[in-house]
Amino acid sequence: MKTLLALIVCCSFTCFGQKIVLGSTEPVVADSFVGYDNLGFAYLIYNNTFTKKKNTISLEYKNLGLGKIERADILNPLKIALFYSDFNTVVLLDNQLNEIRQINFSEFQRQQILVQATGNASRNRLWIFNGLTLELALYDHLRNEYQTLTQPLSGDILYYETDFNNFRWIDENNDWYECDIYGKITFRGKVPGFDAVHFTDTGALILRNGDQISYFDSEKNLLPLIEIDAKSFKSFYYSPQNLAIFTTIGITNYKLTLP
């Protein structure tokens, strides 16, 4: 392990066409690391407070009345979405972490909605997985319009991510799917066992299993990227050409070139 880390520090590490180069290390104190935006701001959660931080700039948002932050979506830094599952509520924030709006889906009058998964979509909309109907939908928070996209999904959602045009998920059977904004569902294949996962911009996956982080694509190529210290590891975050590993010490960034 020490030999591998020394190798990465001194130069670059190349494996099966993937190239990893050590970038920066930043000490942080947080319960969870959400990710970075395109301006280099880091987003963290500590004591249920959502924080945006870069150098000497630090902004915070706290709403203890809504319970625990279940998920934070920073896809659009100008309209961040915080999901409070205990109160079936999504809070939208601007880039200064000022509250734009609270959306309590329990108050939606046209249909019963229990949000189990959500994230930003295009054109002022949110992806919604309704736990009561097991259907994927889009919610326009400006027009207060709810559009069901799919029939009920089979299998519980184990992990999901969203972007403006797609809802991607892995179910309890490790089957990998994606749904576009028109409701078309595509099966992408079966995923190996994992402890944590992120989707890439190239249509592949970065998987963590034990002390190994690997690359996996729809052609069933499973390629090791880097070893980690499982005892200090907390989570990782992938964005194009960047792999950030969050540990009990802080965040270490690697430049990652994928096939």
Structure description:
- With 259 residues, the protein is mostly beta strands.
- It is built from one helix and 25 strands.
- The protein has one helix at residues 2-10, and strands at residues 12-15, 18-27, 32-36, 42-46, 49-54, 57-61, 71-73, 80-84, 89-93, 99-104, 115-121, 125-130, 135-140, 145-148, 157-162, 166-171, 175-180, 185-190, 196-199, 205-209, 212-216, 222-227, 233-239, 242-247, 250-257.
- A five-stranded antiparallel beta sheet has the order 1-2-25-24-23, with helices on one face. Strands 3-4-5-6 form a four-stranded antiparallel beta sheet, with no helix packed on it. Strands 7-8-9-10 form a four-stranded antiparallel beta sheet, with no helix packed on it.
- β21 and β22 (222-227) form a beta hairpin.
- The longest helix is centred in the first third of the chain and has 9 residues, at 2-10.
- The chain starts with a helix and ends with a strand.
- Mean pLDDT is 91; it is low at 1-14.
* Overall geometric form: globular
Main-sheet strand order equals: 1-2-25-24-23
Distance between the termini: 25 Å
The share of residues in extended strands comes to over 45%
Biggest sheet architecture: 5 strands, antiparallel
Specify the structural class. mainly beta
Low-confidence segments, given as residue ranges, are 1-14
